[in-house]
Amino acid sequence: MCASRKGTLTVDGEQVVISNPTKLLWPELGITKLMYLEKLIALSPYLLPHCRERYLTTIRWPDGVHGQSFYQKNCPEPTPAYVRTAEQGDIRYVRLDSLPTLLWLGNLACLEFHASFDRIGQPDYPSEWVIDLDPSLEEEPRIMEAAVLVGDLLQSIGVQSVPKTSGATGVQLIVPSAGDVSFDELRAIGLFVGTYLTQVHPELFTIERLKANRGDRIYIDYLQHYAGKTIAAPYTPRARMGATVSTPLTWEEIKGGARIADFNLLTIEERLSSRGDLLQAAKAQPLRPIYDFVSRSKTVQ
């Protein structure tokens, strides 16, 4: 098939134009654009719910993962009629809420999907709390150990979390929230958690924002979780050589030495067919009592 060949898919009653279907996006794995779109179809029941009603930022790699890339916040033009958008400030964001929209973006070589923490029209009270563990090293063998330590601390204060690989080098801990605390209040909890962990494990953790001052320590990023900022959406592919996918895990997997590279476009379908979406099964928790506890602790100090 000629690399410049075009075709049309009919998806949910909409016409989606597909161009360059044989273009290699992940050359080492032999993943062409057509294969990528097939993977997006399989991922869509899991990826779309985590992007719906969020402001979407994509990263496009027109010539595959070894080419140049660019971030796109504004909806690409021309825009098909089936693509819905949402405006925030002077940006017109794509609302990633349908399979045709997902495939349209996939055809544009959007290889990563980053969703805002704030929901469209609900800027103040998030529906989850996220702590991002960001390694300073490109290869960090301690990342799963670090995730366990943070997860255990959260559990000790009555908070259940779901660990998720970023698909790159880090791990994020996601806590579904009952929506009873604001972003600022969650930052206060995050600072409390981060400060405690850096005092108990100073060789492993840091809350130093400036990367040049972190050494080899893992950054507990409690500031990223805020309105207007984004996260690699659960089940988004990542433009890494291994075609990794940001994947929620069980704590048993984390403690068993799971590797970020194990969860990728070639393995994710089998996992989802057997495990389903671990985040969907997690229950929202009231976090107001935790914030009140942290506030009292500051008062005592």
TrEMBL record:
**Residue stretches making up the DNA ligase D polymerase domain:** 33-278
> What transmembrane ranges does the database entry give?
none
Enumerate the Pfam families for this protein: LigD_Prim-Pol
Identify the NCBIfam families for this entry: ligD_pol
Annotated protein name in UniProt: DNA polymerase LigD, polymerase domain protein
Source organism of this protein record: Paenibacillus curdlanolyticus YK9
Q: What is the lineage of its organism?
A: Bacteria, Bacillati, Bacillota, Bacilli, Bacillales
